Amino acid sequence: MSFDLSVIPNKNIIVAVSGGIAAYKSAILVRRLKDAGFDVRVVMTEGAQAFITPLTFQALSGNPVHTALLDPEAEAGMGHIELARWADLVLVAPATCDTLAKFAAGLADDLLSTLYLATKAPVWVAPAMNQQMWAAKATQRNLNTLIEDGVHVIMPDAGAQACGDVGLGRMPEPEDLARQVTEYFHRAQRAIAEKFGLLAGKHVVITAGPTRESIDPVRYISNHSTGKMGFALAAACYAAGAKVSLIAGPVSLDTPNGVRRMNVQSAMQMLEQSMDQLEKGCDIFIATAAVADYRVAHVAEHKIKKAGDELNVALVKNPDIVATIAQQEKRPFMVGFAAETRNVEEYAAGKLVAKKLDMIACNDVSRPDIGFASDENAMIVFFAEQYRLPQRDLEKASKQEIAQQLVEAIHDALHHKPDETDPDELK
Ligand code: C5P
């Protein structure tokens, strides 16, 4: 699974640097963590300052660097206890033998060792040292103590060392460390979403983008859909704890984190994939795709040559994917979209009934500021009559925000049991 390094908001990392030659790598580590969206504060031991200056870390982290336990000025800003509480994770990189020994013994004679004792956040250590010092019994004993105490040890790499030795003791590359930290927060986020998310435990299938209907081996009929709304919805559903399968027509968008993507070209392929997903068990089906209404009746085997002033291509109607799924016996909660250029609400309400949908989101694609290629959208959501839910007007916002609101609308409808009672009986 690939991890998008730009989606971890509001997490605080302390990078604690102790005195080893690998300290230069920590500068890049801070940079990478910042790139990933973390707020980073750096703590340096006295030894670390012999290898690299606090100023470097201050510039890279955008925060003051913490170096001393008993510095009144620093304590007035963010004291060591406050710093310990601020952190969501403490990453000690590089961690020297001395630092490991202090942690294992529970000493508290400088800022870093005090911070270690004072924080409730997970502590990770990335030991970096000479291979003989790494192998020393005391170091291994200390490491075992730390592991028993719940510290996460990032094993050093083997290779050539600054001292000329070859062996275990090199700090992993900063990109690798930043990736491990990012993955950790993704996993934590995912675990929470899978338990408490609005769509926890649901399998959501989404169609997105245009379809491409071949005329001959080099030409096709398609439309201007970019797939942005469907991809934003896939990301929002995943963030809400759902398992997401995204059936995408030809678009140039990256697959959102954690989403399973199936690429298709034509409407027939999109239908086939949709039916496959339905068989695997689908709770919510969201049709954002702009499916071509017609396909070419006879796709030419070879490129059609230019001849005459007119070319007639016979078209036949494509199956309606969302309507087909809605007719199945074990139908999921069905969400459709309607992109219209006029009479938006009237047409959308008609489609809601005609396609037997549970919910429809409609927008006016004649507005140049929203719709197809735009990053923003504004929509009106209608629910099928039995839900007895009023329409929702989603004001113009980014497609991500609209997607989030649509997830909420789906969740609300799912928890607002359809009314099975015949309205006449109520009288
Ligand atoms: O094209 P139309 O306005 O009828 O599309 C409304 C909804 O139906 C959309 O959700 C679209 O994804 C879906 N649709 C479909 N298969 C088609 C045509 C439309 O699933 N062949």
UniProtKB/TrEMBL annotation:
* Any one biological process term the GO annotation gives: coenzyme A biosynthetic process
State the residue spans of region: Phosphopantothenoylcysteine decarboxylase: 1-203
Q: Which catalysed reactions does the entry list for this protein? A: (R)-4'-phosphopantothenate + L-cysteine + CTP = N-[(R)-4-phosphopantothenoyl]-L-cysteine + CMP + diphosphate + H(+); N-[(R)-4-phosphopantothenoyl]-L-cysteine + H(+) = (R)-4'-phosphopantetheine + CO2
Q: Which residues bind CTP?
A: D293, K303, P319, D320, I321, V322, F337, K351, K355
Gene Ontology molecular function terms on file: FMN binding; metal ion binding; phosphopantothenate--cysteine ligase activity; phosphopantothenoylcysteine decarboxylase activity
In which family does this protein belong, per the annotation? In the N-terminal section; belongs to the HFCD (homo-oligomeric flavin containing Cys decarboxylase) superfamily. In the C-terminal section; belongs to the PPC synthetase family.
Q: What does this protein do?
A: Catalyzes two steps in the biosynthesis of coenzyme A. In the first step cysteine is conjugated to 4'-phosphopantothenate to form 4-phosphopantothenoylcysteine, in the latter compound is decarboxylated to form 4'-phosphopantotheine. Catalyzes two sequential steps in the biosynthesis of coenzyme A. In the first step cysteine is conjugated to 4'-phosphopantothenate to form 4-phosphopantothenoylcysteine. In the second step the latter compound is decarboxylated to form 4'-phosphopantotheine.
Name of the protein in its database record: Coenzyme A biosynthesis bifunctional protein CoaBC
Q: Which gene encodes it?
A: coaBC
